[in-house]
Amino acid sequence: MEPLLRIERLTKHFPASAGAWGSSAAVHAIDDVTLEVRPGETLGLVGESGSGKTTLGRCALLLVEPTSGRVFFQERNLLQLKRGELRRMRRHMQMIFQDPFASLDPRMRVAEVLAEPFHIHERLSRSEIRARCRDLLRRVGLREDALDCYPHEFSGGQRQRIGIARALALQPRFIVADEPVSALDVSVGAQIINLLQDLQQQCNLTYLFISHSLPVVRHIASRVAVMYLGKLAEAGPTEEVLRRPMHPYTLLLLVSTPEISRSGRREFHTAPGELPSAVHPPSGCRFRTRCPLARQRCAVEEPPLRQLAPGHSSACHFAEEVPSRLNPAVFPM
Amino acid sequence: MGTENPATAKQIHTAPSAALTALKGYWKSVRDLAQVIFASPTAVIGLTLVILWVLIAVFAPLITTHTPFEQDYKLVNKGPSALHLFGTDDLGRDVWARVAYGARTILLLGPLSVLVAFACGVALGLPAGYYQGWVDEVVMRILDAFMAFPAILLYMIIISAVGASSFNVVIAIAIGGTPGIARLVRALTMDIRTREYVAAAKLCGEPDIIIMLREILPNCRGPLIVDFLLRIGYAAFYIGTLGFLGLGLPPPTPDWGGMVQEGHSHMTTNVWPVLCATLAIVTLVIGLNMFADGLREETMRYQ
Predict the structure, then answer these.
(1) Please, are residues A56 and A30 in contact by the beta-carbon 8 Å criterion?
(2) B293 Cβ partners below 8 Å, 6+ apart?
(3) Which residues of chain A have a Cβ shorter than 8 Å from any chain B Cβ?
(4) For chain A, which has fewer Cβ within 10 Å, the N-terminal or C-terminal residue?
(5) Contact at 8 Å (CB) between A160 and A100?
(6) Is B39-300 CATH 1.10.3720.10?
(7) pLDDT digits (tens, 9 = 90+) for A224-262
(8) Could you state, in order of their start, the residue ranges of all structural domains in chain B?
(9) What residue in B sits closest to A109 (Cα-Cα)?
(10) Cβ of B203 and A90 within 8 Å?
């Protein structure tokens, strides 16, 4: 099947701490990432804070201009579109934001927030627009009289629903959900996840679901891509990646998820150390500074993304040696 | 307001008309503003002073016994009397009438000039902060050149070049105020443009101009209102200064600064014109400053 969205060799560097004469330091937010999102699927994008997953989502929608690389949406290179063409294209690709308190204009009523896309893209009368807005609120499970309220009158979960309604307004095909539940209570977050799944069914949506929570991604995503320090570490079908990780970073993410085991003992592991500087990333494999499997070769040679099983690829020289579960002999923690 | 009581609207529980909703929203924002003002004693005192001067300006013909132009050569440079409440100036004109009508001048020209300055400042600062890059560089370097001049020197240069008239005073103060306002708007824009609702607006395909005017500018409102009030105070101050330097409004326009200038040579024999005009400037400027300060403190507390 043709991919709906294809990101090719995408790189984004942000200028950092330019000296008096504009020294060329740059934050390597994304480095040479290639990714596909197929129609109707949910691709989970996982990684810790600072791994570049949000930047990738924003680059995919061209909210952030990539440094190099190409972004194809429905086989059209977004970077070659003229401004007007890109604006018309926008209606097919929307975003759900992380912080429901920052993503709604505090000075606009819900009706104005939801009507905005219609003013731009459709010629409708006032009453038609209002009817559409009511319909949108109904679909995301809000009362219709919310239309005349300001965002501050709602709770976080309700605000997130308004954000979802806004994203749905123009019947997009593709939605980037940027950690849509990480700012919410677990129970409210679960409702939002269910809503997103229902909407996917009804509207034939494709999601790029960005999250740092593996359980959430496991629940919603059919495929998962793991990012580390601006690079793709591993990508494949969710169940397979989580059952048989092929990259040591994925394994560490997996075992660092707190869970209460049957014996009642809490097992909790974390990856040792902190994320290295994105201005001066480590040579060779970027994960080697924290990797228990790291050897000489990892410091010299950058591991390419290799396909190890159908649809399952990993960027590790020693992918075959990654244990399927935590082995205290290999991972002393 | 009484007929559109929110309680009755709820009882009927029909879909409220758009006009009613707008009115209710408007009334609510007025109430919110009043709440903010009355929470701060500073703002209340400042507002009282300002309202006092506005009332004097509006009802000037009703509360004065003479016109500001009427000259009485039998009563020149006299102190307060039953006929002239605050005495007369060197041409025998009623000081109280000149102060009251002078309030009209200053309360018209002050806000007007600041309004013009705001229009220019927003027009320059908003694109500079939004686009950044070379637009920002060009706009800001030009404004830096203006800022290099002391304000009063800039006014003197402009006025002496184009001549003294109320229109030219407005132009001079607008030009002098524009760089500061543009900088403020630019700084606020650079902050707000990174908010997620601006990204959402971009994703909707909103053109840049709409994003700037509909999403960014309304969210700069708080600091801009405070700045606006402060600048009216400064404008009153500068109009007074220009008047004193003889570059203000041409005589016989009643002008506080002009009164000080005309009266200061007779100050040892008749202090009243100078004293009244000075007190008028001081109370108006202090009132505006206190109002702005109180408003700033309160709005910051709520954020």
Answers:
(1) yes
(2) B42, B43, B46
(3) 58, 61, 63, 87-88, 90-91, 93-95, 97-99, 102-107, 109, 116-117, 120-121, 148, 163, 166, 170
(4) N
(5) yes
(6) yes
(7) 999 998 899 999 999 888 888 889 888 888 877 665 555
(8) 39-300
(9) B25
(10) yes
Q: Are strands A206-211 and A42-46 parallel, antiparallel or unpaired?
A: parallel
Question: B202 contacts in A (CB within 8 Å)?
Answer: 63, 90
Closest-CA distance, A117 to chain B, in angstroms, reads 5
Lookup result for tokens 């600091």: B223
Cα B157 to chain centroid distance, Å, stands at 23
CA angle, residues A149, A153, A155, in degrees to nearest 5 = 125
pTM, full prediction = 0.80
| Residue range B113-133: mean pLDDT, rounded | 92
Contacts of A88 in chain B (CB under 8 A): 205
CA-nearest of A182, A241, A185, A246 to A216 is A182
CA–CA separation, B15 and B9 (whole Å): 9
A168: nearest CA partner in chain B? B204
Task: Return phi, psi of residue B192, to 5°.
Answer: -75, -25
**Which candidate from B25, B197, B199 shows the least CB-CB separation from A63?**
B199
* Neighbour tally for B265: CB within 10 Å: 10
| Token representation of residue A210 | 């960005």
Backbone angles phi, psi at A221, to 5 degrees: -100, 140
ipTM score here? 0.82
A-B contacts at Cβ under 8 angstroms: 58
